[in-house]
UniProtKB/TrEMBL annotation:
This is FAD:protein FMN transferase. Gene3D superfamilies: ApbE-like domains. One of its GO terms (molecular function) is transferase activity. It catalyses: L-threonyl-[protein] + FAD = FMN-L-threonyl-[protein] + AMP + H(+). Belongs to the ApbE family. Pfam families: ApbE. Its cofactor is Mg(2+).
Amino acid sequence: MMEPDTDHQLRSLSIRAMNTHIEVLCRTDAETMNLVQETADDWFAQVEERFSRFLPESELQFLNLQAGEHCLVSDVMFEVLQLAEAYRQQTNGAFHPLLLHPLERLGYNVSFERLRERTEYRVPPAQDAVQPSAGIELNTVMKSARLPRGTRLDLGGIVKGWAAGKLAGYLRDRLEIGAGVVNVGGDLASWCPSEDEGEPWFIGIENPWEPHRDTGVLALRSGAAATSSTLGRSWTTDRGIMHHLIDPRTGMSAASRVVQCTVAGPDAAACEAWSKALCVLGLTEGLQLMRTRTRQYEAVIFTEDRHIIGFGDSSSFGDRWLHIPIDKFESR
């Protein structure tokens, strides 16, 4: 009989769920990693069944059908809706959860795998601008939610960060795994024994113009990061190239000079919200808002003229953000 494998090596698994690639890295033994696989498979299946806009029986679809009515929701749905509302308010509506109507009108009404097969899509003339102040009415006593009448919910972005953070916390606290990373389509959460022990995780920062080549790395111990881009999920229409980051003020794909943004900080869902807000608002308005609303988040921003902007503490660039050819630095 073989001796049990108790060696805590770096082990990995991959999952395809939520229309994205998911990777989990853990420093643990083989038996525990089997349990990680089962836990991750079950977790992301539950998340997809509850939050997918492409599954007709999901809880999100039920909410969309009941827009204008008060609906009792599950605990996890209520938690995510609270987060989405908090970040809508923090970003002055640049991050907005009620953008499914304009997103579908521009052509993203099927999964992205099917969307890429289209050669051209005709955009209907009507625009679906959403008031940045239009929020979700939440009742914490009843655990109920009411969407504004005529709106539809899309939580795909923030759910990725939230789900990564939740699984990372479970693996760390319940399975007592000392170090690991959960990466859900670029929204990731990591943990280490402490800030002073062991090597950090080195996260590649993708070059937006050369997707298979990194432009430096982020050295991350216990924390999170998320990347939003206008170049990745894009498609051709009769009105030009569209992408999935919608400006709620216009109902159209965001047209700022920011083409990609990576945000790092304590929480993956917040990183996702701020990376998207920066792409929508652009450099001047977006960074000014981050200065007034955040204290623990930093960013690397790529602009359409191929400049790279760093935002945060100057000591982080060279200590935490490594080998990134920064053209300009903006202090927090």
